[in-house]
Recover the amino acids of this structure.
């Protein structure tokens, strides 16, 4: 079946989306457990706005996108002490503002709309080897940080009060966690687009959490779901008879897996 | 002395505040903080733990204290797929190096803690599928796994049937007596703690009285905090507080 991946373009697309899918599926488990699913969508939009701003000003998109992402992370990692403004509301406001700014920046920039569409729905086929290398480095660094600090991220996410009593700086660990998420998203959306990145953050984790009662297995199951959906989705999109945009094709496969797993857990 | 609060005021912005908190908790005490929902019990507990900074006043801690915190059960988000063992193991996290994984000893101490509170056989069960009483025990085991000398419990018997309530209180009392553990616990029911507490902090309508249990649990002092008439009865050797009787 791998025949479609003989083409070097398609092989790059496969490698790039696997890298994005694996890291996002892993991080997605944390994101879903922390109940901050929409942080993923919002940080993706914020990074997209950063790219738009860079296009407008004729700057290199990465630093601008990272800078805006950092602002987003700093805001969304706060546990608001004011109960009238929940983190969820902040995230919602951030989402619409960032989306609007992305459109405005791109509309006023020379390169125009084509770029906006790529940013939002992704165009994996145009991925460059620099982007793939950058994503691979991000994947390794984020993976290493989570391997080293997994228990801090888990503890401060689940029970910040006990963690603080035990001497952990919960606020800083939250910030650190969201930083690993933000950096991943900045690099991932340039490859896969905001839609697919968000899908990778949510669907594999939800699927995994349906089938396991053990956290370590949830990470593995989420990664497997992402890998299967990536290979199958790209394959479908490359079929000459279908010729689909690859990002949405992967999203549809992700959802199909989720639906099948959900049905299976009901009848089991 | 484990902790001393001097003329402390606790607040959340301008929404809520509680002032005039003076409290000394000696080693070996069994302190109960009692009051209705929203009276500030959890906030006082968080101040004692050092995770809520007072707006005013001073809090002093003994350097050697080690708190074992048992938060309200409802506070643990059950979306997490964790076994009872996984939950209890978190009590060891502060003792495990930043980059290390749990050692053999960490696992052994965790299992012993589960054993100690009588739920070792539940170690591999999903935490979220346990009963309220079992969850409470797992959370107490989690605190014990950190080898604390002060056990701090928030509403440990909330939403329990009377038999789980009694056995949870017996467990806490056993840890206090047989293991010389200082206990600080919160409850919104005076009767739950009336027979165990040595010292009581009673909160009602912004008023706060503190003292030895015998003194606080007198009809006179209770009538001074509650707007209802209150009586202290003795039933088969236990103190029972009833409200709503005749005010004569
Ligand atoms: N994060 C918060 N922000 C604002 N007000 C709060 C916050 N947490 C608690 N409160 C309010 O402070 C008061 C005391 O809360 P709490 O200490 O949780 O009471 P208790 O534990 O006795 O039920 C309540 O009125 C509660 O609504
Ligand atoms: Mg409370």
């Amino acid at each position: 079946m791998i025949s479609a991946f003989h083409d070097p373009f398609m092989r790059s697309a496969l490698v790039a989306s696997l890298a994005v899918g694996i890291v996002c599926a892993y991080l997605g488990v944390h994101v879903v457990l922390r109940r901050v699913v929409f942080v993923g969508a919002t940080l993706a939009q914020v990074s997209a706005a950063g790219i738009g701003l860079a296009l407008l000003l004729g700057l290199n998109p990465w630093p601008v996108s990272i800078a805006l992402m950092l602002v987003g992370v700093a805001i969304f990692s706060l546990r608001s002490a004011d109960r009238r403004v929940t983190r969820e509301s902040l995230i919602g406001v951030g989402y619409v503002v960032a989306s609007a700014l992305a459109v405005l920046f791109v509309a006023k920039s020379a390169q125009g709309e084509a770029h906006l569409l790529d940013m939002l729905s992704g165009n994996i086929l145009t991925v460059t080897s620099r982007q793939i290398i950058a994503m691979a480095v991000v994947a390794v660094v984020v993976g290493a940080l989570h391997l080293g600090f997994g228990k801090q991220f888990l503890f401060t996410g689940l029970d910040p009060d006990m963690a603080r009593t035990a001497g952990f700086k919960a606020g800083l660990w939250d910030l650190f966690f969201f930083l690993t998420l933000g950096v991943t998203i900045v690099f991932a959306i340039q490859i896969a687009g905001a839609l697919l990145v968000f899908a990778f953050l949510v669907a594999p984790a939800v699927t995994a959490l349906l089938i396991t009662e053990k956290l370590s297995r949830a990470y593995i199951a989420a990664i497997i779901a992402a890998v299967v959906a990536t290979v199958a989705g790209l394959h479908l999109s490359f079929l000459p008879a279908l010729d689909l945009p690859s990002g949405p094709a992967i999203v549809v496969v992700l959802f199909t897996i989720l639906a099948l797993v959900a049905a299976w857990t009901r009848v089991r | 002395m484990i902790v001393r609060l001097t003329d402390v005021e606790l607040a959340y912005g301008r929404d809520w505040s509680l002032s005039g908190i003076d409290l000394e908790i000696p080693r070996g005490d069994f302190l109960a903080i009692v009051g209705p929902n929203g009276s500030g019990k959890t906030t006082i507990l968080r101040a004692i733990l050092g995770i809520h900074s007072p707006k005013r006043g001073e809090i002093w801690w003994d350097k050697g204290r080690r708190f074992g915190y048992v938060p309200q059960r409802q506070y643990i988000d059950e979306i997490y797929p964790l076994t009872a063992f996984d939950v209890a193991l978190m009590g060891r996290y502060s003792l495990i190096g930043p980059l290390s994984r749990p050692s053999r000893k960490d696992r052994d101490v965790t299992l012993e803690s589960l054993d100690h509170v009588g739920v070792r056989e539940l170690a591999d069960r999903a935490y979220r599928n346990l009963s309220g009483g079992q969850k409470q025990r797992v959370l107490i085991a989690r605190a014990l796994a950190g080898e604390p000398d002060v056990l701090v419990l928030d509403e440990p018997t909330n939403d329990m049937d009377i038999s789980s309530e009694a056995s949870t209180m017996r467990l806490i009392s056993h840890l206090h007596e047989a293991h010389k553990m200082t206990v600080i616990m919160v409850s919104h029911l005076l009767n739950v703690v009336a027979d165990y507490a040595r010292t009581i902090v009673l909160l009602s309508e912004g008023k706060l009285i503190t003292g030895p249990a015998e003194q606080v649990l007198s009809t006179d002092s209770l009538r001074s905090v509650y707007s209802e008439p209150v009586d202290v009865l003795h039933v088969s050797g236990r103190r029972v507080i009833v409200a709503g009787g005749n005010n004569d």
